[in-house]
# Entry
Amino acid sequence: MGIYHYTSAQGVLGLLQHGEFWATEINFMNDYRELHEGIAVLNLLKDRFKTALNKIEISSHNEQEFNETFEIIIEMTVDMVKASTTNIVSFSTDEDYLRQWMSYCPSNNGYCIEFDKEKLANYCSSKNLQLSKVEYNIGTVLSGKEYLDLNNIILEVVAEVYRWQFPDKEIKSESVKLRFNKAENLTSLIKRLQFIVARIKPSKFVDENEYRIIDFSPNVPQQYRERNGVIIPYKEIPFPIEAITKITIGPSSNQELAKKGLEILRGTLKEKYLKKDELLDFKIVLSECSLRQF
# Structure
């Protein structure tokens, strides 16, 4: 399956020559409400936690302690989300899509880069990054297998934190299996909740059909670029160059000339990457969108 990154000629040059994404800091994305929808999900999880407690046998007093513990975990997650630097690389599942050309590419200067989704996902997993489908309906996140898995993890963590804080109190539960120590489990849960927060957007953006690479790495140096008079923070994130499978040249009065230039660049860079035992080999096609550009 392919996913598609829309950019300019300058963006194509950077990606091909350096094999790096420029991951934009999330507060500078096109949706100025980024993170708000995700934090709303955390609050809904708090409300639903009482239902999850029905799975284990505890007294009403212990149930109150469980709820208070989980609320603290949610507060910790929100604080970490607000304090962390979250960087994003955006893709769409739609190839050669008019709205994407108009929204994310300059006039006469648009390129749509196709990436092999599986190769990107495998690479991200190995680098502590996450390639995720963006959700535009909070209900989708709070239903299905993912929510059930998350509920089980929440129960495990809260039970372990509770037992750690109150060692003299016994939790009667056969369904809660504590697989890790309290620190590892708590860190894992908060990180998972952070990723959920970063992949939820308002329903008004649903036609973008977005996937995104999410980066929470605090140790990667932040860079800066200018766009429309605004200084934009970003991080450089390497990617496997062989993940690029096709580039579509967008609607333009110079499509054929743009294609010729890209073909020459591809030939030059192919030799460069071969010396590093990396394969750069992608198709070049022209957009079929009949958008007149002036």
